[in-house]
Amino acid sequence: MPPNPYFDSNGRPTVDIEVSNPLGWKKPISALIDTGFDGFLSLPITQAFPIGLLLRGTMSVTLADGSSQAKLYCLGGLHFDQDVHVGIILIEWSSDAALVGMEFLRSFNRQLVVDPANGSILLNKITPPTPPTLPPSSTP
Q1: Is the pLDDT assigned to residue 3 strictly greater than 60?
Q2: 50 and 113 in contact (C-beta within 8 Å)?
Q3: Residue 133 pLDDT level (bands cut at 50, 70, 90)
Q4: In DSSP terms, which residues pair with 79 in a beta bridge?
Q5: pLDDT at 127 (0 to 100)
Q6: Cβ contacts of residue 30 below 8 Å, gap of 6+?
Q7: How far apart are CA 32 and CA 39, in angstroms?
């Protein structure tokens, strides 16, 4: 049965996922769906350590106010709807919420439909467009 996105107790769109480390250990996580976050997954450090994610280094990220910050990052697997994709997981020191962002939606080919008036959230699977094929070139 496909995962069911839902509104959390604060009315925020949330989805249940699993995160895995390079050895395949998985841990279930509830993550807020944040369309203002360009990335794949952001995890509080308190959730990242028990998964056993391997630190890859630091990277500069641009925040909504235009400022930049250095963030720790790992590579990890994100399991959703019987599919898995590996991506960059940002580690947050001061947050207590996991976030999936636009790269999550792109990686899993999902369309987010939020209808707060009716209390529904859908993550529709979409078919990515196929690039146009060019006719073979003919050279004299």
Answers
A1: no
A2: no
A3: confident
A4: 18, 84
A5: 86
A6: 8, 14, 15, 16, 17, 98
A7: 13
